[in-house]
Amino acid sequence: MFIGCLQVELIIPESTSLKEKRMVLNSIKQRLRNKFNVSIAEIDHQDLWQRATLGIAMVSNGNQHINQALDKILGFIDDQDQSQVIDYQIEIL
How far apart are the C-alpha atoms of 58 and 5, rounded to whole Å? Predict the structure, then answer.
């Protein structure tokens, strides 16, 4: 069994309040849950309007499957118009 963890740091340039930031993040998180069936949470920068760090985790029986899935997830997040990926880290346990 393998556990894949993806940590993604985002900038949300259009956000002018925590409420707007939460709306953008909730939209991204819901789409990721529906499309990829992953666990996801905001893990850092909760009090900043235009920055966020998301933690994403998934379990699989294949290392290659996790690598491919996390790459697709990163691409999906990067394609969002409302946010920009500024850093990411992938770890497989």
Answer: 7
Q: How far is the CA of 2 from the CAs of 12, 70, 79, in angstroms?
A: 31, 13, 27
pTM recorded for the entire structure: 0.89
What is the predicted pLDDT for the residue at 37? 94
Residue range 40-67, pLDDT digits in tens: 999 999 999 999 999 999 999 999 999 9
Pick the CATH number of 2-92 from 3.90.190.20, 3.30.465.10, 3.30.70.1120, 3.40.50.11310: 3.30.70.1120
